Amino acid sequence: QVQLVESGGGLVQAGGSLRLSCAASGRTFSTYAMGWFRQAPEKEREFVASISQDGGRTYYTDSVKGRFTISRDGAKNAVYLQMNSLKPEDTAVYYCAARNFYNEIRSLKDVFWWGQGTQVTVSS
């Protein structure tokens, strides 16, 4: 069982930035593909970004390309989501996700473990 703990959410004005962090338990972080999803009120949870086991490949949903950057730090068992130029439509609960021995998290079905979520609110 892998535990994921997110932090870094909050309230920010449109155009601002936030950096989300996710700390993962376990000794085999290097085998985990990691990702971020989000869920806005009354909407389904959706894919935002993911990063491969070795950090060499990243994937983004179209609406965040050029604004969000996902990265990982093996020494800290952590994954990050740098969010710039935030828009009100980015408001959602953001969830960290993981799956071991896997490279491409792209959808809900790809995920084995979830964090508890962190709220991001962007005011206009």
What is this entry, summarized?
The protein is mainly β. It contains no helices and eleven strands.
What does this structure look like?
There is one protein chain. 0% of the residues lie in helices and 49% in strands. It is mainly beta. Strands 2, 4, 5, 6, 9, 10 and 11 form a seven-stranded mixed beta sheet that branches. The chain has a four-stranded antiparallel beta sheet with strand order 1-3-8-7, with no helix packed on it. The model has no long low-confidence stretch (mean pLDDT 96).
Tertiary shape: globular
Q: H/E element string?
A: EEEEEEEEEEE
Give the CA-CA distance, first to last residue.
Answer: 40 Å
DSSP helical segment count: 0
Strand content: over 45%
Which spans of ≥5 residues are poorly predicted at pLDDT below 50?
none
The overall average pLDDT, rounded, is 96
Range of helix content: under 10%
Judged by helices, strands and strand pairing, the structural class is: mainly beta
Number of strands: 11
What Rg do the Cα atoms give? 13 Å
Main sheet makeup: 7 strands, mixed
Topology:
Elements (H helix, E strand, L loop, with lengths): L3 E4 L2 E4 L4 E7 L7 E8 L6 E6 L6 E3 L7 E6 L4 E6 L8 E9 L12 E2 L3 E6 L1
Parallel strand pairs: 2-11
Antiparallel strand pairs: 1-3, 3-8, 4-5, 4-9, 5-6, 7-8, 9-10, 9-11
Which key terms come to mind for this protein?
mainly beta, seven-stranded mixed beta sheet
